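Section 3.1: Structural characterization of target chains.
Under the original work plan, the team committed to producing a structural model for every single-chain target entering the pipeline before any wet-lab resources were allocated. The record below documents one such target. The sequence was received from the expression subgroup and is listed exactly as submitted; it comprises 207 residues.
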Amino acid sequence: MAAPWREPLQRALKQNAGSRDSRYLQLATVRPDGRPANRTVVYRGFLADTEVLTFVTDSRSRKIEEIARSPWGEVAWYFPGTREQFRLLGRLTVVGAATEDAALQKGRLAAWKSMSDPGWQQFLWPQPGEPRGGDDSIFRPDPPTAQDPVLDTFCLVCLEVEEVDHIQLNGNLRHVYLLQPAAAAAAGEAAAAEGAAAEWAVRNVNP
């Protein structure tokens, strides 16, 4: 059964499809020193038949270390056309060249093949955050093709959502979705709950 927040999110994406900005959202992580880090990323779809959100990043970016130290992240996603916001909290996984999970690598390959030439080129640029040299031609490399092997610098980032806060300013509505242990586990029946899937609870709260 699909997570109950997926349908409202997909509806918002469809209703705001006329704006390219509808696929941009902000991803917050935690730096090694405990301070927050935030940046805009591009939504790349769900991972296969799951509720896992995906983005892409460079293996040399700072967020790789941040996620390795603290896998928790949250995205804030505002849709101006329908005046609604989704905040999605969960655990982040980076899928890189060394990742062994076949399903995750399949998702990484699919994301790679969906990239444009300018998108591919970025993964051939020099080390992010390092001092810039004087030769700007290095930022215009010949792009790889969809048939070329995936560059080692290309990573898929997966967000496995555990909490969603959805507010609709039109109507002043707000719903919070929480992923909770199966009912048997909540009742203390550990043996019955072992291996059971978690369940989503929905709360209608004040905006």
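Residues 102-113 form the longest helix (12 residues).
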